[in-house]
């Protein structure tokens, strides 16, 4: 029976190959051709390596909405949209009709019952406890302490070593290691020390890249195809499986060590403890249920938060520094702002500053927003309605139809940002009074929108400002010429080949 189920997939792949050859001989157009049997899949495959720009080309030509028709038996009919009215409707006004749903959870199964993968009561519990913890005064102290500790003991020694050697290195890799160490210490009280001078290989840290590579792939190929790869343990599914093992081998022992510390704790003071509060949340969720597994709940909870804490912040910082190398005047203005706001003398290094002081860096904040506008870390949102719905654009969407929202495209829409939308201009975020302009989240969805707006937004800005200010003021980043810079065809848009740079210290430490 299983052999027969594979035959349609093989037929589709064969037909796709020959139509792809035919397409290559035709003049290129943005909209993919709707072929018999295979639908628009050949055009999607042909542009898979540039999927975000492919979506953008189509959406800008078609008025921000495009109906994609997949193979006849592939259940791949989709609506691509970057329409702010549709996004506001889906993510806010009619939020209850667009849960994550079973298909989303199937694609993101590796995240288990974490906050990004669940709906209803469990999502509300996750969100409530996480918001409560992040707003706690002691969390702010812990966050500041962890960030600066990782800066001083990890980031600065590594950058100093590369500056002294004068060698090139991958700045994206450095940021991924930084954010991984920081979020691991914050959540699990475990410092993996991946940001060390010899840059050790840690399977868990690198596993996040393999995970995001596989997740977008699952969005754009028929489910039967990636399920077959999963069964055969080949391709991206093999990498995803290996990442899953690496996550569990890192997180479960850290959980056990933390639980042991709590059991052996003798003092009775009311120390702030993220770990204990998540155990309380688990007990609330499983009242009367003896079949649950607290370690599984904690694993899912922390993996989701580590995914958010590592990938989004490191991605934003990577694109930010690439944009700075292309816009030296912006770098100069950021350096001048730091000098003025923190009253630094010429030749004095920038070291510690607290969260309140970080809010003085308005121009830096605007520059970070510009990087997030042009390269939102989570570039695509996947939705499907529970019940038939009519969007503000007039499109009818049914439960068997996927909706792919392109946040990447929204940063390139003249209707939202003007004719200079492709330019890197921090000034567009600064009001006449010198503060940060407010832009509705359904127009600037770098942190999502509606009830599922990222609850770590403030934490992300704090961390990015501390890292960015330290590097901009104390070092000069030089881009290695000749490298091709492009976003990965993944849910989280890293740089495909990393960001090769040299670093020069402005003032000896």
Any overview of this molecule?
The structure is a single chain. This protein has 509 residues and is of the alpha+beta class. It has a single domain (31-503), classed as Orthogonal Bundle (Cytochrome p450), CATH 1.10.630. The chain contains 19 helices and nine strands. The protein has helices at 2-24, 41-46, 51-61, 84-93, 101-107, 120-134, 137-165, 171-188, 203-220, 223-232, 235-263, 274-285, 294-326, 328-341, 355-358, 362-374, 407-410, 414-417, 457-474; strands at residues 65-68, 78-81, 169-170, 380-383, 389-390, 396-397, 402-406, 475-479, 500-505. A four-stranded mixed beta sheet has the order 1-2-7-4. A three-stranded antiparallel beta sheet has the order 3-9-8. The protein has a two-stranded antiparallel ribbon with strand order 5-6. It starts with a helix and ends with a strand.
Strand order of the largest sheet: 1-2-7-4
Give me the CATH architecture, please: Orthogonal Bundle
Could you please say which CATH topology applies here? Answer: Cytochrome p450
Report the strand count. 9
Question: Measured on Cα atoms, how large is the radius of gyration?
Answer: 23 Å
- Helicity, as a percent range: 40-55%
The CATH homologous superfamily is named: Cytochrome P450
């Amino acid at each position: 029976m299983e052999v027969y189920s594979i035959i349609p997939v093989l037929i589709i792949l064969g037909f796709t190959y020959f139509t792809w050859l035919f397409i290559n001989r035709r003049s290129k157009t943005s909209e993919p051709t709707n072929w018999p049997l295979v639908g628009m899949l050949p055009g999607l495959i042909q542009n898979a390596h540039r999927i975000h720009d492919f979506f953008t080309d189509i959406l800008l030509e078609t008025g921000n909405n495009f109906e994609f028709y997949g193979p006849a038996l592939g259940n791949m009919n989709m609506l691509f949209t970057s329409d702010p009215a549709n996004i506001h409707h889906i993510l806010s006004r009619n939020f209850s009709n667009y849960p994550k749903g079973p298909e989303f959870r199937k694609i993101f199964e590796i995240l288990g019952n974490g906050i990004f993968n669940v709906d209803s009561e469990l999502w509300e519990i996750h969100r409530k406890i996480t918001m409560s913890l992040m707003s706690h005064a002691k969390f702010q102290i812990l966050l500041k302490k962890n960030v600066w500790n990782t800066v001083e003991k990890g980031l600065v020694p590594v950058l100093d070593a590369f500056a002294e050697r004068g060698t090139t290195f991958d700045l994206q890799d450095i940021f991924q290691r930084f954010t991984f160490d920081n979020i691991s210490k914050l959540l699990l009280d475990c410092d993996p020390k991946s940001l060390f001078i010899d840059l050790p290989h840690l399977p868990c840290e690198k596993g996040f890249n393999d995970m995001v590579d596989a997740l977008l792939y699952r969005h754009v190929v028929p489910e039967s195809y990636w399920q077959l790869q999963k069964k055969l343990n080949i391709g991206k599914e093999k990498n995803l499986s290996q990442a899953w093992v690496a996550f569990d081998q890192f997180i479960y022992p850290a959980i056990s060590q933390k639980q042991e510390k709590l059991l052996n704790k003798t003092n009775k003071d009311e120390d702030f403890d993220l770990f204990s509060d998540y155990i309380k949340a688990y007990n609330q969720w499983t009242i009367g249920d003896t079949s649950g597994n607290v370690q599984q709940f904690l694993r899912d909870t922390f993996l989701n938060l580590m995914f958010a804490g590592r990938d989004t912040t490191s991605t934003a910082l990577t694109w930010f520094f690439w944009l700075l190398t292309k816009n030296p005047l912006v770098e100069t203005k950021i350096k001048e702002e730091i000098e003025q706001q923190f009253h630094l003398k010429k030749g004095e290094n920038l070291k510690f500053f607290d969260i309140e002081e970080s809010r003085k860096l308005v121009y830096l904040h605007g520059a970070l927003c510009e990087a997030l506008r042009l390269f939102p870390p989570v570039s695509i949102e996947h939705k499907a309605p529970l019940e038939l719905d009519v969007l503000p654009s007039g499109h009818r969407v049914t439960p068997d139809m996927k909706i792919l929202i392109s946040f990447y495209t929204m940063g390139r829409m003249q209707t939202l940002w003007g004719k200079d939308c492709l330019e890197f201009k921090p000034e567009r975020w600064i009001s006449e009074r010198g503060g940060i302009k407010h832009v509705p989240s359904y127009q600037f969805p770098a942190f999502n929108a509606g009830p599922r707006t990222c609850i770590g937004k403030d934490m992300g800005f704090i961390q990015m400002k501390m890292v960015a200010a330290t590097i901009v003021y104390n070092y000069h980043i030089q881009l290695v010429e000749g490298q091709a810079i492009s976003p990965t065809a993944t849910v989280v848009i890293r740089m495909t080949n990393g960001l090769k740079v040299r670093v020069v210290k402005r003032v000896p430490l």
